[in-house]
Fold each of these.
Amino acid sequence: MERFQEEAVVLSTLDYADADRLVTLFTKNRGKLTAFAAGARKSKRRFAGALQPLTLLRAHLVERRGDTFRLDAADIVETFAAIREKLPLIARALYCLELCRELVRDREPHPALFDRLLDYLRLLKRGEAGPSSVIAFELDALAQAGLMPRFDRCSLCGGPPGPEPRFDPDHGGAVCGRCSHRARGAIPVSAHLVRSMGALQGGERSPLPAALRQKARELLNSFIAHHIGRQLRSVAFMTQVGLD
């Protein structure tokens, strides 16, 4: 058995049996891992409230047979407590955790995405995340997972999206008017939205107007749901909180 330590963000937890807990961790160097924490719900000394989503840990792990690991101890590095004090911040943060959990395969390292997640959580913690920041994070996360939707060019012919573009998750992004007959499931979108999304992908961080943000979120929700096979559960929570 291999013993090792990893910096990790707690993505989610699941109670198991009477006292144990399964913890899904996003580690910097080993990707997503499922760890078995024996007695975690009773032991105050070993874990001391560390096994909560939105916690950055130094995880002490042992590799086991199969697909799981054993979590022997966890040292808290950062708690992001300020995020837990405001419902809109909680909604954004939990959405980003779920997105990372669904996009990343087990044991597939994504160190750049790990760093990007921490950067975004710290922006939320400091109250510096702008209204378009969650969209920018989504685009970055999709790019790191190899699923970046295309907005700068038509996904079918490679030409400009044109004045009457459509968006087709099945073909990977924007589709120009000339190719729309080849993408029967594509939905009409404004050229302004396509240009704005392309600018966000290119690093532009100017906030989108509220109406445009809502349309952008609808597009990305449909794109993500298409690729993972379902809508993320935290999308409904964000809607209940009133976030576009």
Amino acid sequence: MTKKDVLRKLKDLANLKAVEGMAKFGITSKKIYGVSIPNLRKIAKEIGTNHQLALELWDEGIREARILASMIDDPALVTEKQMEKWVKDFDSWEVCDQCCMNLFWQMPYVFEKAKEWTSRKEEFVKRAGFALMAVLAWKDKEAKNKDFTKFFSVIKKESLDERNFVKKAVNWALRQIGKRNSYLNKKAIGLAKEIQKIDSKSARWIASDAIRELESEAIQKKLRNLK
């Protein structure tokens, strides 16, 4: 399937009502067709892994093309230069999160990259750092507890960021780390209680929301069953 074929397929699936609905959830990429994620996954399955096509689709600047690019790219061929180019292009929380979930988390230097991005000023670059922390806690079964506790200092520091898409990602990272196992659950709750004492509306929200979930019976039961 060529780039032209893919773009034609995306246009055929365009849905103006879906575009309007997405806008209500903050999905406001500059170019957007309103194609659903399940439909994009179907197209990705048809294409298979294709690094060159992924690069071509990304450069189109279309929400659907970029998410699709993250689904079909070959992690073995992705360079740090490409990651830096793509992360600077993020124009919505959705493209950011999809790219992190589908592709970036598989990079060998991803733990370092996650921490590095959280120190950047750009809203979606910073979000990407915390999104990677959350995805790694969820998907990387080989990572050690210490790999995640190393993130605690930046989670606490950036809990002061009032920007909506940053604070939600900080919260996501904290919650996901705390759901990984009992040890990290206790550590994450302890960190959340420290953050809760900070004189910041953002920090208090991040902490309270995380504590509510991490101390819930549903999560505690799930963690007990992991033993």
